[in-house]
Structure formats: C-alpha cells, structure tokens
Design goal:
- The chain contains 9 helices and 7 strands.
- The chain has about 230 residues and is an alpha/beta fold.
- The protein has a single domain, classed as Alpha-Beta Barrel (TIM Barrel), CATH 3.20.20.70.
- Strands 2-1-7-6-5-4-3 form a 7-stranded parallel β-sheet.
- Helix 8 links the parallel strand 6 and strand 7.
- Helix 1 runs parallel beside helix 9 and helix 6 packs across helix 7.
- The longest helix is centred in the C-terminal third of the chain and has 14 residues.
- The radius of gyration is 17 Å and the shape is globular.
- The model has no long low-confidence stretch (mean pLDDT about 95).
- The structure holds phosphoenolpyruvate.
- Phosphoenolpyruvate (PEP) binds next to strand 7.
C-alpha cells in the first residue's frame, strides 16, 4: 500500500521539516510513504520527492530545477504529469513524456499522474479510457519504478471524490495498460480513504489538501497499515 502527500505550493522549509519530524513518530510498517513538498523545501530524506523537475542536468531554464539540484538532496523520486501542471502550466504530453524518459534513465521512482476533465467523464468510460491513453503516450508503463496515479481533474481539490464505482471501473481499465501500482487521487479524506483503498486495483492514494495536516496524514497511514 502506498500513501503519498502532495503539498503543492503549501508549506515552507521549516514547516516541512516540522511535519516530517512529527510524521516519523509513527512506524510505517510496510506502507510506502511519499512526501512531495515545494521545491524550496526539498530535503534529504528517503520519503521526500520532487513535485516537478526539468528534464536536464542543469542549464538555462529559468525558474526550473533539474537533476543537479535534486542530487544535492539525494532525491530519487519525482511526480510527473500532475493535472495542475498539464492544465495551469500548459505542459504538453510530449514534454511530460520527455521528463518521464529523462528521469527514468536516471533510475528515479516516478509517480505518473493521469486523469480526465469533467466533460470527458460525462461522455462515459470509453471516452475516459481514450483520454487516459493520450496521457500515457511516450511513457513506458512497465518501467520498474513506475507508480501510476489516477486523479480525475474534477475530483482534485473539490471535496468531491470519484464514486467507488467510478474508481473501480477506471482502475480496472488502467490495469489493462500496466501491472505497476495504481494510486487514486482526488479529494481523498480521512472519512473515505478506507473504502477507497479497499477497491480492487487501488494500490494506494495520492492526497493533496487532506495531507497538509500531519495528524490527518498520520491517521491515513494507520488506516493503510491496517489494510495490508
Ligand atoms: C492532488 O492534487 O494530487 C490531490 C489529490 O489533491 P486533493 O487531495 O486536494 O484533491
């Protein structure tokens, strides 16, 4: 079971350090825990990963960080393809696949996000599958250190997660593309995590807003521990 926290553009370095200290008070007991703080709070700790990184060692890419900056903190984990980067930062599938391949070649563990917007969901599961296929173009779905995160855009940060039926149906479809772990993300909270991780083909969760409170996130890890 995998439980991952995406802080997005929340928390400073000292707040992240405090959070980590608190988090480490519990044993993870076989649950893989990952934490994605903002770039300014990257630190050397094996659970920490980067929310984003440019596909280059270093160079003239203003505002970006690359392999050299990640290496400084011994970071070996990266999140690629998050919908906020696809839609707000306008990252193309070609660029996302470039990032994937660069960090794959560096042996990183890659949390690779896919997910459809509401207008596609409304068209039904076939349209969803077609859309998700377009988001995996150029990506090796059998990469040994790949973790796929299915995050429907309409469920992210809205407080309304996909229904258990929708998650079940979509993860089953994604399972046809990959044998690697598949996480669900999108308004996962303390009150729905248990029923979500019980669904077939759900290997864990990627949590945004609800992960910002360390006690809530600790509780989520406890629930995942009890599940394994
Ligand atoms: C996310 O952005 O990865 C996410 C799952 O956010 P939230 O839990 O806030 O919906």
């Amino acid at each position: 079971m995998i439980v991952a926290a995406n802080f997005k553009m929340h928390k400073t370095r000292s707040q992240t350090q405090e959070y980590l200290n608190e988090l480490k008070k519990i044993k993870f007991n076989g649950v893989k825990v990952a934490l994605f703080p903002p770039a300014s709070a990257l630190m050397e700790d094996k659970i920490v990963g980067a929310q984003n990184a440019y596909p280059a060692i270093n160079g003239a890419y203003t505002g970006e960080i690359g392999l050299e900056q990640l290496n400084e903190f011994n970071i070996k984990r990266v999140l690629i393809g998050h919908s906020e980067r696809r839609h707000i930062l306008n990252e193309s599938q070609k660029f996302i696949a470039e990032k994937f391949n660069f960090y794959k070649n560096q042996g990183f563990e890659i949390f690779y996000c896919i997910g459809e917007p509401l207008e596609i969901r409304k068209k039904g599961i076939e349209a969803v599958v077609e859309y998700l296929k377009s988001q995996i173009e150029g990506v090796d779905l059998e990469y040994e250190k790949l973790i796929v995160a299915y995050e429907p855009v309409w469920a992210i940060g809205t407080g309304v997660s996909a229904s258990l039926e929708e998650i079940k149906e979509t993860h089953k479809e994604i399972r046809n593309f990959t044998s690697k772990p598949i996480l669900y993300g999108g308004s996962v909270k303390l009150n729905n995590i248990k029923e979500i991780i019980e669904i077939e083909n759900v290997d864990g969760v990627l949590v945004g807003s609800a992960s910002l409170d360390v006690n809530t996130f600790k509780e989520m890890i406890k629930i995942a521990k009890d599940m394994k």
